[in-house]
Amino acid sequence: MAGHGWSPPLPEYSFAALAQRAADGLGSVRLGPNDRLVLLGHSLGGVVALALAARQRGLPVDAVVGLGIKVAWSPAELAKAEELAARPVTWFATRDEAARRYLRVSGLAGLFAPDHPVVDAGLRREDGHAQRGDGRWRLAMDPAAFAVGAPRLPALLAAVDVPVLLARGELDPMVTDAQLKELGVPAATLPGLGHNAHVEDPAAVLALLDAYL
User: Fold this and answer.
1) Using CA atoms, how far apart are residues 71 and 156, in angstroms rounded to an integer?
2) Spatial distance between the Cα atoms of 134 and 129, rounded to a whole number of angstroms
């Protein structure tokens, strides 16, 4: 996703712009007669999945599953996000320092060791230094992406004509069962899992798709 990895950053971050970048990456989707296109997105990715499924985009989406979407945002949280978006990139002297920071900010501390290969996707080495094996390290995420703001979930849901399931891990502090139920679409809670439920128990998250395949 733009601002969160290998994809180039966007000049300005919005849910519509992120969805457009994802749509551009999909290109022309060709489905067979027995194929179904179900979008599964986590956190910000869940919001982008809803934006992708909007009827005006015309994509052949059959259903959307949004996991761990933060529904309620306080003024203080939004102000903090704006502050983070305005900060310059932080550089670290070693990969280990950058990896430990990445694991903390992504909520993956305790799930992966800093030297685990999966952490590589969240890190970047200073341009021109990768081949030499030296240079500083940074997180892959573009800090400006924090400026995307709070999603208007009722409006996003109203723009979707396909089935939507909103899910959360039982231990996820970012969203509650009550908040999901207020949105008027089916909701599911995954017992014993947190915000990164897809990492903690991939099979449980994939099972959410069964009803739509």
Assistant:
1) 12
2) 6
Q: What is the pLDDT of residue 130?
A: 57
Residues 6+ apart with CB under 8 A from 52: 19, 22, 23, 39, 59, 61
Task: Specify the range with the lowest mean pLDDT, choosing from 25-29, 156-160, 178-182, 204-208.
Answer: 25-29
User: Judging by beta carbons within 10 Å of its beta carbon (0-12, 13-18, 19+), is residue 203 exposed, middle or buried?
Assistant: exposed
Residue 51, SS3? helix
The answer to whether residue 3 scores a pLDDT higher than 50 is: no
